[in-house]
Write a structure and sequence with these properties.
alpha/beta; 369 residues; elongated; 6-stranded parallel sheet
Length: 369
């Protein structure tokens, strides 16, 4: 594949997508592929130090704007051999801009509500049928794409960063996160429940706050910590205050490895999702995991997670309580988490699979559906 030129179109600046793009750009560049990345905020993706061309292009919020933006993309499309869009909306814009038979690859990189109707369903159907290949981060998304008419569908779980050993001890980190035992020795041993993720609705933090409020009568009372930031932070803080729920919002934290080591339970309460980075991070840290049974979480975690129905506050609270109350279960989950972590994809494997998709489409001329 000499002198292959790939145009990547991104519509979501979330941490998972940004990391996935950085991995692909780095590995593809090393293999001689020339990459351009366009999106609403390409400089927020952490690619400034790469050799990729960064092209600011808005990904519209309406079908009319999408059509207009697709015109702006056409000039760039014509300079490239293949287009790879990340996200359904980016796939729609790229589909309008990409003339057949130039191949279009679309990655459905995060989960979607279990039912999508109206205009959203029309967009998904268009993307599925327009793409020469659809890469999905979870089996349920792959099934959904096939149901909409996609013909070449593969499951590709993005790789997650390897955090390495936590530089701080569990004891010192817990003392920082919960100084209460120093002031009140009777509260010593307070369990720490950790949630990591961007504060957006589909991550389900409001369900976690409700579950925390249900557990205030436990002794000692668990401390719920939320690492991450996002547009719903103010709303969630008000919810926690109104319920007197023992939840602290830490904002963005660069010390995820330390937080994972300090936690007694890690919780992923998503309403819908794909393959969250936090799941892989928790597995590699051997942290007992309670998570919603959505997207690719079950496939990633295997027996290393206790799965609950998404949006079910009672089930989430029971799952957390069970891990805290059954030391043997927590120990078993830690061992199973490490086993599951051994099977997580590496950066090199993911990049090789993407490159193989490009190669297959270029050889077969699959841009025409």
């Amino acid at each position: 594949m000499v002198d292959l030129r790939v145009l990547m179109v991104a519509s979501d600046p979330g941490a998972g997508l940004a990391r996935h793009l950085r991995v692909l750009v780095d590995h593809l560049d090393r293999r001689g592929v020339r990459v351009s990345v366009c999106g609403e905020h390409p400089h927020d993706l952490g690619l400034d130090s790469s050799r990729a061309r960064l092209l600011p292009v808005e990904i519209g919020s309406s079908s009319v704007r999408d059509a207009l933006e697709s015109r702006a993309l056409r000039r760039e499309v014509e300079r490239h051999d293949l287009v790879h869009a990340f996200g359904v909306r980016a796939g729609a814009v790229a589909g309008l801009a990409t003339a057949r038979p130039r191949p279009l690859v679309v990655t459905w990189h995060h989960g979607l509500p279990r039912r999508t109707t109206g205009a959203a369903g029309v967009v998904e159907r268009f993307v599925a049928r327009r793409a020469a290949a659809v890469l999905c981060v979870a089996d349920d998304l792959a099934e959904r794409a096939r149901g909409y008419g996609a013909r070449d569908v593969r499951v590709l779980v993005p790789s997650a960063p390897i955090l390495g050993r936590a530089p701080r001890s569990r004891t010192s980190m817990r003392a920082e996160l919960d100084p209460r035992p120093v002031r009140d020795p009777l509260s010593s041993g307070r369990p720490i429940v950790l949630c990591i993720g961007r504060l957006v609705r589909h991550k389900g933090h409001h369900v976690l706050v409700d579950a925390a409020a249900q557990m205030v009568d436990r002794q000692p009372r668990p401390l719920f910590l939320v690492a991450g930031d996002g547009p719903r932070r103010g709303e969630l803080e008000r919810q926690a205050a109104a319920l007197d729920a023992p939840v602290r919002f830490l904002g963005h934290r660069p010390d995820v490895a330390d937080l994972l080591q300090a936690a007694d339970v890690v919780v992923i309460p998503s309403l819908w999702d794909g393959a969250p980075l936090a799941v892989a991070e928790a597995l590699r840290a051997a942290a007992p995991l309670v998570a919603s049974d959505v997207g690719g979480i079950a496939a990633m975690a295997g027996d290393g997670a206790l799965l609950v129905e998404p949006g079910d506050v009672d089930a989430l609270a029971r799952g957390i309580a069970r891990v805290l109350d059954e030391p043997g279960l927590g120990s078993t989950m830690r061992s199973q988490a490490l086993h599951a972590a051994e099977h997580l994809p590496t950066d090199d494997v993911v990049a090789s699979q993407v490159l193989a998709t490009y190669h297959r489409l270029m050889l077969s001329g699959s841009g025409t559906l």
